[in-house]
Amino acid sequence: MNKSNNPFDFINQLGDLGDMRKFLGQDFFKNLPLPNMQSMPFFQEERTASEFPAIDLYNRSTELIAAIALPGLKSASDVALSVRSRFLRVRGTVPNYFSGTHEQKMMSEIFHGAFDREIELPERVLPDSTKAMYRSGLLVVYLQKDQAREQPGDAIAIDFSGDE
């Protein structure tokens, strides 16, 4: 019988982690002063492919700038970017450089594989004016804001005199 000294091992036996986190809150266990607790699978945050890649969005007066964390890309064929007036979509594949059969993976935190993420932009942009560059693991996308404002139509006079 394998007996652990960790008093929180019983939590691993409980139901769905998502339900437990909804009940206790996302960061309930984060700041408890117990050693080695954060490394237990129960306490690690779940990550989904829909959250990859991480995106920071900046607002400037005439443009939005998206900084997209994509370490490990080697060429433009690894990633595709598309822009619509209110949406930015990035998709591609992050290669696994150590995927040979002779390596034993001891730990895995780096995302590898296919990804597809779309975010809604807070303002309309001009898709044809978008520029992008990849440097040091960041895909930086410059999105020109659509500055055109809807113009009010011509005022139409309304005749109220012919009702009698």
Question: How do the helices and strands line up, and which of them pair or pack?
Answer:
Elements: H1 17-24, E1 55-59, E2 63-69, E3 79-84, E4 87-94, E5 113-120, E6 131-135, E7 138-144
Antiparallel strand pairs: 1-2, 2-7, 3-4, 4-5, 6-7
How would you sum up this structure in a few lines?
The chain has 164 residues and is mostly beta strands. The chain has one helix at residues 17-24; strands at residues 55-59, 63-69, 79-84, 87-94, 113-120, 131-135, 138-144.
What does this protein structure show overall?
- The protein is mainly beta.
- It folds into 2 domains: 9-43, no CATH class; 49-144, Immunoglobulin-like, CATH 2.60.40.
- The chain has 1 helix and 7 strands.
- It has one helix spanning 17-24, and strands spanning 55-59, 63-69, 79-84, 87-94, 113-120, 131-135, 138-144.
- Strands 1-2-7-6 form a 4-stranded antiparallel sheet, with no helix packed on it. A 3-stranded antiparallel sheet has the order 3-4-5, with no helix packed on it.
- The model has no long low-confidence stretch (mean pLDDT 77).
Care to count the β-strands?
7
**Domain module tally:** 2
Distance between the termini: 99 Å
Gross morphology: flat
Rg over alpha carbons = 25 Å
Q: How helical, in percent, are the residues?
A: under 10%
Counting copies of identical and different chains, the oligomeric state is: single chain
Classify the fold: give the CATH topology of the largest domain. Immunoglobulin-like
Mean pLDDT: 77
Label the CATH architecture of the largest domain: Sandwich
**Widest β-sheet, arrangement of strands:** 1-2-7-6
Main β-sheet description? 4 strands, antiparallel
Q: Which H/E pattern describes the elements?
A: HEEEEEEE
Broad CATH class of the largest domain:
Mainly Beta
